[in-house]
Amino acid sequence: MFGYIKPRTAELKVWEHECFRAYYCGLCHALRRRHGQLSTLFLSYDCTFLALLLAAVYEEEEGFEKCRCPARSGCGLRGVCGRQRVRDRGALAFAADVNVILSYYKCADNWADERKLHGLLGKWALAGAMRRLRRRRGAFCEEIAGHMETLRVLEEKQSACPDEACAPFAALMETVGREFSDSDEKAVAPLRWLLYNLGRWVYLLDAWDDRERDRKSGAFNSFLRPNTTREDAEFLIYLSLNEACNALDLLDLRRNEGILRNVLDLGCRDVTGGKLKVER
After folding, report:
1. Measured distance CA(30)–CA(32) in Å, rounded
2. Most CB within 10 Å of its CB: which of 7, 9, 95, 167?
3. Degrees (nearest 5) of the Cα angle 213, 209, 224?
4. How many CB atoms lie within 10 A of CB 27?
């Protein structure tokens, strides 16, 4: 995964930091329970944010329980580490499935494009989980695969501008927002718009981050097109992030609004400034 969508922890209140960590541990538990121990190697901040967002929009309550974590030292014989985790209900379970799907395609892309060994190993590690997901969420997995194929074709042509290149991944993230809820179109539209623009932001920021490596390897990168400037990249990346922030204002959030705003307004801007080497 990309790992770009994370909070500015120094600005979180103590209880907000504990809550974010509880979702992170809850996602880890959901991955292990639904997809096996190997899947926890791909645990991401991105899907922790997704779980927080979906739970804040759609779920009436969130339950906490003591975390039993085999990965943490000092847990004792029974594996109780003292942290709290959120019980893996609908939002966490769905985020765990999305975590596996996106990680699988990221690994497959790394292997296909650059023959990275860790991409092949990651694809192999998640193969069983993907087979189960295709049985459980067949239509959803097929739609995600369609967006990834569209992206692959665009990248093979090596002529897409940044706006065109980011569209398939943005549409993929919009599909994620639509899949979780059966609400009417008007109710779910702000969530879909938020995830669409967050997908644009992630793709564009990752492309900017990889441009020098892609220049050396010959891999496609829309920011390597002639006459594409750093100012163009900055405009598109910040435009996408601003639209995601604006969409959050339109959502009726049941809880954790401060955490979600911290991630989008502060954490994502910190990451953007760091990658673009600009001050914000």
Report:
1. 5
2. 95
3. 65
4. 29
DSSP 265: I
State the Cα–Cα distance between residues 123 and 162, nearest whole angstrom. Answer: 27
Distance CA 123, CA 128 (A): 10
Distances (CA, A) of 49 to 31, 90, 217, 232, 272: 15, 14, 32, 28, 17
| 167: its two tokens | 């569209």
pLDDT in tens, 232-278: 999 999 999 999 999 999 999 999 999 999 999 999 999 999 999 85
Sign of torsion over alpha carbons 187, 188, 189, 191: positive
pLDDT single digits (tens) 199-240: 999 999 999 999 998 898 888 999 999 888 899 999 999 999
- Which stretch of DSSP H or E encloses residue 160? none
Q: What tokens were used for 128?
A: 């069983």
Going by the DSSP 8-state scheme, the letter that residue 123 receives in this structure is H
Which residues, at least 6 apart from 59, have a Cβ–Cβ distance to it below 8 Å? 89, 90, 91, 254
Residues linked to residue 84 through DSSP beta bridges, in sequence order: 66
